[in-house]
Amino acid sequence: MSLIQHLAIAPVVIPALAAPFAVMVMRRKRTLGTAISLLSCAAMLIAALALLVQAGEGTIRTYALGNWPAPFGIVLVVDRLSAIMLTLAATVSLIALVHAVLTGADRKGWHFHPLFQFQMLGLNGAFLTGDLFNLFVFFEVLLIASYGLMLHGQGPARLKAGVQYVVVNIVGSSLFLIALGLLYALTGTLNMADMGLRVAALGPDDQGLLRVVALLLVSVFALKAAIAPLHLWLPRTYAVTTPAVAALFAIMTKVGVYSIIRVVPQIFGDGAGAAAWAPAPYLLPAAAITAIVGFAGVFVARSLSEQAAYAVIGSTGTLLIAVAGWQADTLTAAIYYLVHSTLAGAALFLVADVVARRRASFADTASAGPAFCQQQTVGLMFMAAAIAATGLPPLSGFIGKLLILESIVDTPGWQGAWGWAWGVILATTLIGVIGFARTGSAIFWKDIPPTDGAEPAVVSSADMVAPVITLALLAAWSIGAGAGTAYGAAAAGQILDSASAVRAVLGEP
Fold first, then answer.
1. Which of 22, 153, 189, 322 is the most buried (most CB within 10 A)?
2. CB within 8 A of 346, min separation 6: which ones?
3. pLDDT (tens digit, 9 = 90+) per residue, 60-87?
4. What is the pLDDT of residue 1?
5. Could you read off the pLDDT of 331-367 as tens digits, one per residue?
6. Helix (H, G, I), strand (E, B) or coil at 453
7. Three-state secondary structure along 477-497?
8. How far apart are CA 158 and CA 112, in angstroms?
9. CA 308 vs CA 190, 352, 389: distances in Å
10. What distances in angstroms separate CA 305 from CA 239, 346, 483, one per listed residue?
11. CA separation, residue 150 to residues 98, 135, 166, 366, 382 (Å)
């Protein structure tokens, strides 16, 4: 087997090797540990880009660990959607890590870099795995690492939110395990491609239980994606987390969305009998409520980091409105908007940190304070991030929302529903604009004199590097919308063609 044929496992192996090396060297040679972590993220990005190009050829590639054939062994699957997610995760991780290093956030604890690498191991594994049990395993890996990263820097607020975060995810993991056990009892396999075939062969007596399992499994993914009413854990957790970590966490909710997109058509698609598309009727109302809750939170948030957390929820709701259509056009729009919303969420957290570092005791609260260093430049960055998050022109959020609005009009069975979906997307956009305008005017336009008459403290511009790169990527995603949607359309075609995944994974005609 040539080196290029091992490329599929590189996104898993690279952080798996970097994490223990970082642990060994961090205490005595912190700089070397940091360099290992940065090089690892750069290597993951290179590997992901190579897989993105490879997957663009249209062939679904598989990698059987230990040469054990599917469905008996562990198999990794690289198609267009997984390649997009790997590239997105590697990009966001490198940006977040650069920000942590430049701002010194990584120096608040010895285990930041190893935990960061384990987090990437879990994320990349979740995007690559071809069976449900290993999806559960990689979920646990990324969650355990996220527990440590969430508490990085310590503080009572983080500890309180961390306990809530751990409890919620333990409940979610328990339900995931129960759903897996029931599915295995019904089908005798955990490989997703094989499971899709066996579900289609189940008798009428098993259809009721299969439908319950489908709803239970999607509920677990909904908890990970923070879909209303399972979203309550996210705002407090993300708002108090170290900003660089929160920027990385912008892709965590997308793991839940990715799992829904991956599992529903493959296992509970047209051939699943009475359980076919069982979660579909509930997804649109849940998505609409999530979008409303998220952008209403943006409107009433008391700080920029809290606004960013609610914006992540709102964008997930908007994204899922497109996913709920389960058509090639709606999934194309969803994939384009998924990339945009992840970058926009990361940009908001990073800009919030830039603001907080310059306002001393006022931090990033949505209230007027004394003038601060580089106020106009930071204000422009905030405006660009807010434009991206709400979906205004000229950035990619506007294109993404237009694609979603256009695609859902012709969705079969949505004759009355698409109008409601339009109303939700347009109304939440307006609410988001007002919310960000209110916060921006309070922070950047309404200065109050300092109580001690002191001049604004001079702060290094190094902390602006990561948010500027993120905003530049959003601009690039806008310019490259044609190529992005073309790749997304091809990815959507692969997702809905479950037979092609069966042929690639099981080698069956």
1. 322
2. 92, 95, 96, 247, 248, 250, 251, 470
3. 999 998 888 888 888 999 999 999 999 9
4. 64
5. 999 999 999 999 999 999 999 999 999 988 888 998 8
6. coil
7. HHHCHHHHHHHHHHHHHHHHC
8. 15
9. 37, 8, 9
10. 5, 11, 32
11. 18, 22, 10, 23, 24
In this structure, the dihedral spanned by the alpha carbons of residues 411, 416, 418 and 424, taken in order and rounded to 10 degrees, is: -160
Q: How far is CA 230 from CA 97, 245, 337, 429, in A?
A: 29, 22, 22, 22
| 351 C-beta neighbours (distance < 10 Å), count | 31
DSSP assignment of 128-187: HB-BHHHHHHHHHHHHHHHHHHHTTT--HHHHHHHHHHHHHHHHHHHHHHHHHHHHHHHH
Number of H helices, E strands in the chain: 20, 2
Residue of 429, 403, 390 lying closest to 335 (CA atoms):
403
| Contact assessment for residue 278 and residue 268, using Cβ atoms and an 8 Å cutoff | yes
Q: How far is CA 190 from CA 175, 270, 492, 497, 500, in A?
A: 16, 19, 23, 20, 18
Which residue ranges of the chain lie beneath pLDDT 50? none
CB atoms within 10 A of CB 383: 16
Look-up of token digits 């990527």: 473
